[in-house]
Amino acid sequence: MPSFRALQPSVLKASARRPAEADFHSIHVPVARAMVDCGVYADGARLPGKYTHGGALAKVRELEASGVPAFVWIGLHEPDDHQMQAVADVFDLHELAVEDAVHAHQRPKLERYDDTLFLVLKTVNYVEHESMAKVREIVETGEIMIFVGRDFVVTVRHGDHGGLASVRKHMDSAPSNCRLGPYAVMHAIADHVVDSYLDVTDLVENDIDAMEENVFSPDSATDIEHIYLMKREVVELRRAVSPLAKDLERMGTDYNDLVSKEVRRYMRDVLDHTMKASDRIASYDEVLSSLVQAAVGKVSMQQNTDMRKISAWVAIAAVPTAIAGIYGMNFEHMPELKQVWGYPAVLLLMLTVCTTLYFTFRRNHWL
């Protein structure tokens, strides 16, 4: 029989291994935890009831078999790898697009994987603030990924803003739009996101106008850091909006076999709004570049003015300093050294010269 001393190391090793070997990463969170909503739409109307992602697609296929046009719309918020893969297995989503949807930080783009379109939209949100001095971020961004197939829409959202509840509510109340199929949902989401671009650019324009007024106001101090902050935010806006225009243009020519003519017409309207927002952002960038130059010029002028004032006061102070320095050299033979009125006369001379210099500099706008 083995001794206690012989068993002790193995027993301690086993007892220490049990909690350490608990792999918490292997505990899969159900898809329902990341699912915001899951709806089945038949002939444009949403069916009552709650569905899982698998049950919703099965219901759609059942309706299609009976001749009723139907599709499913699933909304996910920041799913992990396991949750996204579970949805991808049911809807046969491409692994590259699935990887992009999980890890986010993608540029706006539109890609095709067989009969599925994958659209990435950058969402933007304006951060309310009292003044530029108290803010470190003006525009925050997020992402919405949209998988669109023949009978399904899967949306994946990243970020705390950009919710699609209002879009879903609008689609639920407009069966005529839903009858156009899953690509009508893609249009509604894209239209919602692009409209937010216009709203944000309007608010950013107000900030830029306030900066412009401040830069060209003679009595206000100019802080170039605020202009640089706004320029950085405008660059982020441009990265979110500008690349989308090229992909939306392709929607009208490259995907005619997937997207109906009616939906392509609606997408052209989204493209127009995207171009409008992009043009605004480009103009803001130019204005801010001009404001930077104007602010630098204003600061240089202020520095020149300050230097003139300093030089003027130095010149005034140099006169009594020079006279006092001469009389402080202790030479025996100096003008008026033995006179009773010599000291007051020198003080009067200092005062007269300094006063003359002061009014001369004032007249020349140095003081």
From TrEMBL:
<keyword id="KW-0406">Ion transport</keyword>
<dbReference type="GO" id="GO:0015095">
    <property type="term" value="F:magnesium ion transmembrane transporter activity"/>
</dbReference>
<dbReference type="InterPro" id="IPR004488">
    <property type="entry name" value="Mg/Co-transport_prot_CorA"/>
</dbReference>
<keyword id="KW-0460">Magnesium</keyword>
<protein>
    <recommendedName>
        <fullName>Magnesium transport protein CorA</fullName>
    </recommendedName>
</protein>
<dbReference type="InterPro" id="IPR045861">
    <property type="entry name" value="CorA_cytoplasmic_dom"/>
</dbReference>
<keyword id="KW-0813">Transport</keyword>
<dbReference type="InterPro" id="IPR002523">
    <property type="entry name" value="MgTranspt_CorA/ZnTranspt_ZntB"/>
</dbReference>
<keyword id="KW-0472">Membrane</keyword>
<keyword id="KW-1003">Cell membrane</keyword>
<dbReference type="GO" id="GO:0050897">
    <property type="term" value="F:cobalt ion binding"/>
</dbReference>
<comment type="similarity">
    <text>Belongs to the CorA metal ion transporter (MIT) (TC 1.A.35) family.</text>
</comment>
<feature type="transmembrane region" description="Helical">
    <location>
        <begin position="341"/>
        <end position="361"/>
    </location>
</feature>
<dbReference type="GO" id="GO:0015087">
    <property type="term" value="F:cobalt ion transmembrane transporter activity"/>
</dbReference>
<dbReference type="InterPro" id="IPR045863">
    <property type="entry name" value="CorA_TM1_TM2"/>
</dbReference>
<comment type="function">
    <text>Mediates influx of magnesium ions. Alternates between open and closed states. Activated by low cytoplasmic Mg(2+) levels. Inactive when cytoplasmic Mg(2+) levels are high.</text>
</comment>
<dbReference type="GO" id="GO:0005886">
    <property type="term" value="C:plasma membrane"/>
</dbReference>
<dbReference type="Pfam" id="PF01544">
    <property type="entry name" value="CorA"/>
</dbReference>
<keyword id="KW-1133">Transmembrane helix</keyword>
<dbReference type="GO" id="GO:0000287">
    <property type="term" value="F:magnesium ion binding"/>
</dbReference>
<feature type="transmembrane region" description="Helical">
    <location>
        <begin position="310"/>
        <end position="329"/>
    </location>
</feature>
<keyword id="KW-0812">Transmembrane</keyword>
